[in-house]
Amino acid sequence: MSDQHNALFESIDLGPVTVPNRVFQPPHGNAYGLGDQQTAFRAEKARGGFGLIVQEYSQIHESTDVTPVDSGYIHDDETIPPQREMVDAVHDHGGKLFVELWHGGATAGNYGSRRPPLSASQLPTGNYYTPKEMEHDDIQKIVEAFGNGADRARRADYDGIELHAAHGYLISQFLSPFYNDRDDEYGGSLENRMRFFREIIKSVRENVSDDMAVGARYTIDERVEGGLTADGDGLEIVRRIGDDLDFWDIDIGVKQSIDDMIAPSRRHSKNYQIDFMKAATDELDVPVGGTGRITDPDDAVALLEEGYVDMVGMARQSISDPHWPRKVREERVDEIRECIGCNVCVSQSRQGIPLTCTQNPTVGREAIWPPEEYETVDEPKGILVVGGGPAGMEFARVAGERGHLVHLNEKAETLGGRVNFEGTLPDLGEWNRVRDWRATELERLDDVAVHTGSKAEMSYDDVESYGAEVVVVATGASWSEKGETSGTHRPVPGWDRDHVLTPEDALEVDPSGRDVVIFDEEGYNVSAGVAQSLAADNDVTFVTPSASAFDQAVHTFERGTIFTALFESGVEFISHHALEEIRDDDVVAANVHSGEQTTLEADYVVFTTMRKSNDDLYRDLTTNLDSLRQSTEIEEVHAIGDCVSPRRIADAVYSGHDLGRQV
């Protein structure tokens, strides 16, 4: 290891616990619950060199649950055995494991238990329920439950406790005037609002062993009007609690400002929380950690050396590459798989869907697909991959790691496929890391040859004569020119007029000063990016059959940022409408519920309604597969990625990885 990164690998004491380095995984959900999948997921990060892992938010009492999400649990003794196994697995790799004790308060809908959600006050949640304002008996019951959770953590052999005093959950709801309008000893003054937190700290301290650390994840700035701020009560709480805790894990944002709390790259660049962390570090004598999409080793070192933090936290980056610390220590920085900030991870887990990652297809499958480990083949095959998008690149990489002889042919001048377009859309530049990391890895592999440009375009005859034993078709998908939607499955009449464009077409023409209608059912980044690109110089009307545009961006926390940009650009939105007809100078749109028609001026029409697989080559090859096998060396033909089913980039990468492990 070079001296450049030494600071990351110095040990640090969190109270009585010595953590072997300064790189930690803050708590984050994954919807895996407890058991083998969770154990393998956390242990992999310890194997990859993370000195401290904090197990996700863990329910301390039956009065809170986040059904349908399968979260952490520590509310009864049955949860202890699987957690002890997880602790042992992390310890086997030299890491420390803490658990985050959590009560959701008003933000937990309790859809499983059907109990009324509890909170400091009865204030609206924006959901189908309003919480119960906690009575004194409720408060004491929950304080005791935090202590009981700490006792179970001790019996499960955890190294420490992190209290969830952040993100608008129950402790946060008592601390913040945004949530707390009580007029008793638990509300009003700052000291009164801190009382619940202090009582919980005392209860936890009484139930842990002397060799366990006790700290908190804490929102220093809630990023909402009337909430805690880093230049006000948010920082004053840090001052007053101080070294009653062994460490602080600083964060920003609550549910109402979640696009700051778990910010996508569309909204914030990496390292966006560093000034908030430094505000706490400057006030405290105990260690402070924090996050904010820290991905680069040089940035991480600078944060330590310049006194922003004492520990560098990586949640999304630890998902994207659980071996980040090991690669830095071994001077393999160029092999780090950096997070792209797409938030596919959290968009899954917060809906109760097991966590996935665009960059790292092994997430959640560590027990069967250990990251960075590949089973070498006994008999290498000669493999031709047709198409160098996310699926084709990932397949070629994995097959090459396993010892196959791979030729990757891409007819474009550069690898990347759909990423080359989507990565040029406004604020999505970090998505190019999907392409760039894989291109670098392919260059590193001796058994992989990459060919690009027109000479690499593959016809049926080219494939037939290539001499490959295995052919993998990864030719992607194209945007439909016809405007079919899920509600009609039919082309829009007039689709074949010259002024009807696909998304790629729309960014290649110059429609300056014209009326543009975007007809969308994608509801995600392409439709948003095209609208943002065109809105600068045109009058743009965005038509969608859904109730609201960009539905797919709700759980990635991008929709608020998208709407702000587009409203500021003057984009007009017409929801609940579909296009009925495209004419020379206008379009006819109809309300999908009432049928009432509206005419909109349109010099150009852009369809972002569906993509169709480019599967002609695959169909031709498989139609003649028996003949191919008899007359050539070809043994197998496969299709992967969007060529099979147009979905997210994450799904294309997974598809390529899956076949790469099997072939």
From TrEMBL:
Reported cofactor(s): FMN; [4Fe-4S] cluster
Key words, A-Z: Flavoprotein, FMN, Iron, Iron-sulfur, Metal-binding, Oxidoreductase
A single MF term (Gene Ontology): iron-sulfur cluster binding
Segments forming domain NADH:flavin oxidoreductase/NADH oxidase N-terminal: 8-334
Pfam families in alphabetical order: Oxidored_FMN, Pyr_redox_2
InterPro entries named in the record: Aldolase_TIM, FAD/NAD-bd_sf, FAD/NAD-binding_dom, NADH:flavin_oxidoreductase, OxRdtase_FMN_N
FAD/NAD(P)-binding domain sequence ranges: 383-655
Entry's family note: In the N-terminal section; belongs to the NADH:flavin oxidoreductase/NADH oxidase family.
Record-linked PANTHER family: 2,4-DIENOYL-COA REDUCTASE, 2,4-DIENOYL-COA REDUCTASE [(2E)-ENOYL-COA-PRODUCING]
Name of the protein this chain belongs to: FAD-dependent oxidoreductase
Organism this protein belongs to: Haloarchaeobius amylolyticus
